[in-house]
Amino acid sequence: MERFYYGLTKYKKTILIIFAVLCVVAAFLSRIVSVNYDINNYLPDGTASTISLEVMQKEFSDGIPNARIMVSDVTIPQVLELKGKISAIEGVTAVTWLDDAIDIRLPLSALDTDTVETYYKDGNALLSVTLEESHRLDAVKQIRKVIGKDNAMSGSAVSIAAATENTLTEMIYISAISVLFVFVVLMITCTSWMDAIIVMLGLGVAVLLNNGTNSFFGEISFITNAAGSVLQLAVSLDYSVFLLHRFKECRTHHDNVRDAMVEALCKSTSSILSSGLTTVIGFLALVLMRFKLGADLGIVLAKGVAISLITVFVFVPALILCTYKWIEKLEHRPLLPKFTGLGKFVHKIIIPAVIVFAVVLIPSLLGAHSNSYLYGSSKIFDEHSQVGHDMAQIETVFGQNDNYVLLVPKGNTAMEKALVSDLDNLPQISGIISYVNTAGAEIPSAYLSKSILSQLEGENYSRMVLSVSVPSEGEETFALVKQIRQIADNCYPGKAYLAGEGVGTYDLKTTIESDMVRVNTIAVLAIFLVLLFAMRSLSLPIILVLSIETAIWLNLAIPYFMDSPVYYLAYLIISSVQLGATVDYAILLTDRYRENRTVMDKKDAVIKTVSDVFVSIMTSGSVLTIVGLLLSWFSSNQIIAQLGLFIGRGALLSLIIVLFVCPGLLYLFDRIVIPKKQAKENPVK
């Protein structure tokens, strides 16, 4: 390694020029990365609802109704006029209302009350609208202009449009505050005013290169876009700081700055690589999810950490060598104390801290696996937002509702009529629009207008639009999806296709639940093996992994004890992210404890270890905590907000356990974790 680093540091100016060019290219490429805000697009290819969508897209130009519009205090003629205006908006492929389900030329009193009140109730009209994905944002804006601010819109298309519009602005605030906070922390914890600039430049280059290389994927998910950069910033901060500290240590006995840098790189390679590798493995575990959003986030985060490592070993050394005179010129006295008192305090509470840890371990494990979950994106905006307010307004008048599309092989009108009859018997289905109950099974399709026929019959399939009085997700919804599929399968075994927001959420639930155990198990085992080989000890990886896993369980148990629902997607992601991002703290503390035990007894080793690592761990941990909380505070998307809360709270819990519990575990199991021949014995203490 020494020869490699000598060769690398020889071309410091060339390296800086190369990275400058790469950054310019990456800045351009990052602008062409598109963002996908639809969770259901990440379902596995073989999922039933995914196949249904593919079949429907081949057969019909109209998609599934993905927006609901409620207008108040309107007459039937006014609704029909409004329907025409909405239909004329670019991106609107279909608008469905009462006139598509029954003949509204008849008096309303003569029509089926349940059917009428599905679309028109107390002077309020509820229209179902289908929006094209490519025009979704503009179409939602135009519809809002047509209906006015006093009327309401909801549905997946409306939620996605709002997320698209809000996330970019929110992330600008989050990123700006995160960078400012990191800079302030570095200014306080480092010993040269130049250090913070060096570290921030290294982080900025790594983040920019990672964002630019995202263009290789074409598009990334909204979660990856929102959390990727700030998480990369938080988890890779300590790599540059550690190298910089090592360089300063080596400068005390090297007059030649290049020799000092090579020695610093050789001494820090193992620690930084093992730390980075555990983080990369934690993120890569997400790739094993069948739910493709996990792979999207996992690859981008793992790639980001890998790029950060390359930057630390190549770009940052070159930058330090070119600016070392400024670093040394701007040196100042440490602004923080030695924290010896904290080390003594931790030693005093060793036994109580370990007892508390043991007491909360089992309840936190049980609580973490007993939460109630939300699986889809139907409630990603709370009632304080425009979307959340509108959804509540619609549900107040018309109740909870959704639209499904059922495709069956066409040609057998008798079977279709029997199927419609069976579906009508389900109390949760409030309306069905199909060929057999719009035209009647006895009327030949040749007598229908092309516009109506194109919505109801394709080349090979007949299309039924089902209005259901259930929410987009929940046990009642999932039970209804299973019922509809069973009824359709009885009539058309293996040939019927059901799609819709609630259907996709049901498939999402079954997909990501099966991912959970596999992803977490592999992440834990992989990190355990890395620690096993790196530390050459069986007991230490057990202590370290158990400590961080307990912090994860505590983090996820809090919503259970607060009776608060959890977005399963955030729940699934945080387990790998928190493990990969915070196990580094435990590694750093353990390595320093083992080092101190070679020259002092275990009591003094605990005191000195806590004093030595407190600033380093707090620097990285506080940044991850604040970055997570910023996501929680500023994001209107509740999935991102909850993920941010989990990250911030999880980092804080990991900090507490690493600083106050891990020293006690190392102290109590000292004879197991420290070989006798390596330990400094002191019979007095």
Summarize the main sheet: 5 strands, antiparallel
Tell me the total number of β-strands.
Answer: 13
**Separate helix tally:** 27
Strand content: 5-15%
Per CATH, the superfamily of the domain at 1-32 and 190-335 is Multidrug efflux transporter AcrB transmembrane domain
Low-confidence stretches: 441-449
Question: For the terminal residues, how far apart are their CA atoms?
Answer: 41 Å
Helix and strand composition category:
alpha+beta
| Top CATH class of the domain at 1-32 and 190-335 | Mainly Alpha
Q: What does the radius of gyration come to?
A: 30 Å
Shape descriptor reads: elongated
* Name of the CATH architecture of the domain at 1-32 and 190-335: Up-down Bundle
What's the helical proportion of residues?
55-70%
Mean pLDDT: 86
**CATH structural fold name of the domain at 1-32 and 190-335:** Multidrug efflux transporter AcrB transmembrane fold
